[in-house]
Amino acid sequence: MGGKAYGNATGLYNKHRKYSEQWNPWHPFQSAHDFQQAQSFSQQTNTWIDQHLRRGLVNFNIESFQSADALHKLLSEHDFRLGNDSWIGDHSHIFGTLYYRDIFKCIRFLLAHLPFQALLDFEPVRLADSESRRIYSVMNTGDWWWDMQDQLPAGATFVPVICASHKTHLTNFSGNQHAWPLYLTIGNIPKDIRRTPKKRSRILIGLFPCPPKAAKNMDDAWHSAVGTVLTPLWNLDMTGPGLKWNCADGF
User: Fold this and answer.
1) Cβ count within 10 A of residue 147
2) CA atoms of 147 and 125, how far apart (whole Å)
3) What radius of gyration do the chain's Cα atoms show?
């Protein structure tokens, strides 16, 4: 079976673990009030934020930041993030620059995401109704997961990778630009969570340039771009030794 724990999680997880000495559920903000104010500013311009903060309203009393720049700096130093510096630029793509993220870092981020602590599936299961008839529902109840589990070392956790993409219109002001975003999630997250955008279970892992109309080699360009992003997975040996990562359940 899978889902074996090889020890307690270390590093950032323990720093922010519930009931630890350093635990702050509103990290990187100092309080729930500061978090709520920052959330309300998320769709505002820097000028609007600065003007709002300078009014000095008594009910504000924000301790974590006093300007738009300070807010953005706070968010950029967030422990649990991928951030702008996680992007890799590949300028050799035939139709323009391909931007993508390290797929292992993205998978690791989702496995350790604390809101998913009690939700992740780490091993396959077989379900049956009252008449002993097999029930297929979420991904880890299918035969495919069992087949994959048999190929892994004993105790290893199988992580199904799910990718999706659709052409996206970017702007009308720079030549009617389009791009193909590639999103990633994992099958260990239940489908009702994956299908709810507000749960943030999908990560933008690639942004591919769209070829011009009537361009040749469109299919080759697309598969080449996807191949660049997924190459680390193809080079991973499923028979072992595998990768040891912290998970949201603390192990």
Assistant:
1) 11
2) 12
3) 22
What average pLDDT does this structure show over 216-220? 74
* Dihedral sign, Cα of residue 185, residue 189, residue 194, residue 197: negative
Contacts of 71 (CB under 8 A, 6+ apart): 38, 41, 49, 65
Sign of CA dihedral 235, 239, 242, 248: positive
Q: How far is CA 163 from CA 87, 107, 190, 212, in A?
A: 17, 12, 15, 24
Tokens of 113: 């995401």
Task: Express each pLDDT in 30-59 by its tens digit.
Answer: 888 888 888 888 778 889 888 888 876 645
Distance, in Å, from the CA atom of 137 to the CA atom of 118, rounded to the nearest integer, reads: 18
For 110, other C-beta atoms within 10 Å of its C-beta total 22
Q: Burial of 189 by CB count in 10 Å (0-12 exposed, 13-18 middle, 19+ buried)?
A: buried
Residue with tokens 């529902």: 137
Share of the chain above pLDDT 90, in %: 11
Distance from C-alpha of 126 to C-alpha of 216, rounded to nearest angstrom: 48
